[in-house]
Design brief:
By secondary structure, the chain is mainly alpha-helical. It contains 11 helices and no strands. The protein has one domain. 78% of the residues lie in helices and 0% in strands.
């Protein structure tokens, strides 16, 4: 298993797409953070006082330490998941188009072990991406603190906060695992990274738009429709992922103080269940495929 894991990890790390996609994600994060820093210089609306109240104060809290670190933890499960899903589908689907899966099974590799190793390798790469986005967010937040506060505050940095940041990375990772497992499962099921990308990315987009619409309708919906909206909100991958990333914002951003996150432990269990379900689907998809071994 360790040898297969090393091989799968090398496959992902040696793919230019892995690092090109990460560079794009970091560039977008830097652009968004820089824009928020600039927006903090917006003039304060009349009647709000002279203490940076209103929109300007909001943008300051979103960018300085420690509030800006929430963007580093949550950016990847939010916008960055599109890039990660593409990488995951490409890694799994290209096994058939490139024919690299044939010599692997010719050496007697267990198909279940290959799937688990592939998912673990993608999870490790996701951790690398998370560390990269977090480091960039820290640097940008430190710069924002110098600009807006005239100093880099570190009084918030203690053992409890370090522990919270580590847990926050775990939350962000768990929020992305179902999408990665789904991309792998669909790529193996259809033997096509393009189909897997289309389905997963399409689902994410529909989910984002649909959940926003359902959230807007929920206060006025009643009866069966209200129950249906509640069921969708409780079961959707994105809604449960948002609950976990919301805990990151609650722990780091002063703006989120007093916000209640409903059923975070249930959300974590649902995301684990989705990940296991898609992993099983990937194993079954690979086992059902007739891999042709060509004679030397």
């Amino acid at each position: 298993m360790s040898g297969i894991l090393r091989a799968e990890l090398l496959k992902v790390l040696r793919r230019p797409m892995t690092w090109i996609a990460l560079a794009i994600v970091l560039a977008i994060l830097a652009t968004v953070q820089s824009l928020l820093i600039v927006l903090a210089f917006l003039p304060t609306p009349e009647g709000t006082g002279d203490d940076q109240a209103g929109p300007a104060r909001l943008f300051v809290e979103l960018t300085v330490l420690p509030g800006g670190l929430a963007n580093g933890l949550n950016f990847l499960p939010g916008l960055g998941i599109f890039a990660l899903a593409v990488v995951a589908a490409s890694v799994a689907g290209s096994e058939f188009s490139w024919g690299t899966v044939v010599p692997l099974f010719a050496r007697g590799a267990d198909r279940r072990a290959v799937i688990l190793a592939k998912l673990l390798a993608l999870a490790l790469v996701t951790v690398i991406w998370l560390l990269a986005t977090f480091i960039l967010a820290f640097v940008l937040s430190a710069a924002a603190s110098l600009i807006h506060l005239g100093q880099i505050p570190l009084d918030w940095l203690n053992f409890d906060m370090v522990q919270e940041l580590a847990i926050g990375m775990g939350r962000s990772l768990l929020a992305m695992l179902p999408y990665l497992a789904a991309a792998v499962a669909l790529a193996l099921l259809f033997r096509s990274p393009a189909i897997a990308m289309a389905v997963v990315l399409g689902y994410i987009i529909v989910e984002e738009v649909g959940l926003a619409a359902l959230t807007a309708l929920r206060p006025i919906a009643g009866g069966g429709l209200g129950q249906l909206i509640g069921l969708v909100d409780a079961a959707a991958i994105g809604a449960n992922a948002d609950r976990l990333t919301g805990l990151n914002t609650l722990a780091l951003s002063p703006l989120a103080q007093g916000t209640a996150i409903e059923h975070p432990y249930r959300a974590a269990l649902i995301l684990v269940a989705y990940t296991v379900l898609f992993a099983i689907l990937a194993i079954l998809a690979l086992r059902s495929r007739d891999i042709t071994f060509r004679p030397a």
